[in-house]
């Protein structure tokens, strides 16, 4: 099971309301390479992993990604808090406002809702861990794009932290992949 | 890749937190949370590393040394600001403190 901690993994401060920035950052909440995809992908792939290292790592990174989803949600919430419908509209969030008001929702910046086909579980641990490594790189690229788009240094600081985490996750998944490959090649010999 | 992840060192691990400028930290709640976040980040980083390097004794003893420090900070925080955990992981004063604001997204 999971236990909630009434705090964020990393503090989120924003300089002020900024619906334009919120509009693009939502992609790391519910876009294809966002934190919802990441957490669900890893926590779901655990069951078909053959080694303890891979089971442990997917559990832990999947859990950390849930904390990242909360961080991204907090950024969006703070950037749109108190923003009028007109300002939302002017920032390109008119569609979001029409459907969700100021509520959070999993979509990409174009309003395309999150779908389960963003993630896969083939049951082949080599395939799944390779997907996970690609997913971390896609998330890293997306955070770099968001850093380039950000005009709020406080938000940029949090985006840098999240980008750094993807780099570490990629490294750890690579090590888990090596472990699974060793395990499978040993199995074939004996 | 610009990253060769050897065993995480404490100064490396807390690096992202250094960017948080001290003058912007106003409340003591935020400040106490920051100390918890700093220690917890070290624990998370070492935890992921240990998942794929379970025989690294140095990393393990570093991890084990963070645990009591983190527990101490959490205890001090909870005495002032109420439970950080639910579901039996923290006690509460009367009346039930868990539902009290601020929630993380409002802090
Ligand atoms: Fe990640």
Which tags fit this structure?
heterodimer; A: 190 residues; mainly alpha; Ferritin; 8 helices; 0% strand; B: 107 residues; 4 helices; elongated; binds fe (ii) ion
Q: Layout of SSEs?
A:
The complex is a heterodimer of chains A (190) and B (107).
Chain A: H1 19-25, H2 27-30, H3 35-45, H4 52-80, H5 85-90, H6 94-100, H7 125-149, H8 153-189
Chain B: H1 10-13, H2 15-18, H3 28-52, H4 57-81
Bound molecules: fe (ii) ion.
The site of fe (ii) ion (FE2) has 7 residues of chain A, from helix 7 and helix 8.
Description of the structure:
- The complex is a heterodimer of chains A (190) and B (107).
- Chain A is mostly helical and 190 residues long.
- Chain A has a single domain, classed as Ferritin, core subunit, four-helix bundle (Ferritin, Up-down Bundle).
- Chain A is built from eight helices and no strands.
- Chain A is elongated and about 65 Å long.
- The model of chain A has no long low-confidence stretch (mean pLDDT 97).
- Chain B is mainly α and 107 residues long.
- Chain B has a domain at 25-84 and 94-102.
- The longest helix of chain B is centred in the middle third of the chain and has 25 residues, at 28-52.
- Chain B is elongated.
- Chains A and B meet through helix 4 and helix 8 of A and helix 3 of B.
Short description:
With 190 residues, chain A is mainly α. Chain A is built from eight helices and no strands. Residues 38, 65, 136, 139, 165-166, 169 of chain A line the site of fe (ii) ion (FE2).
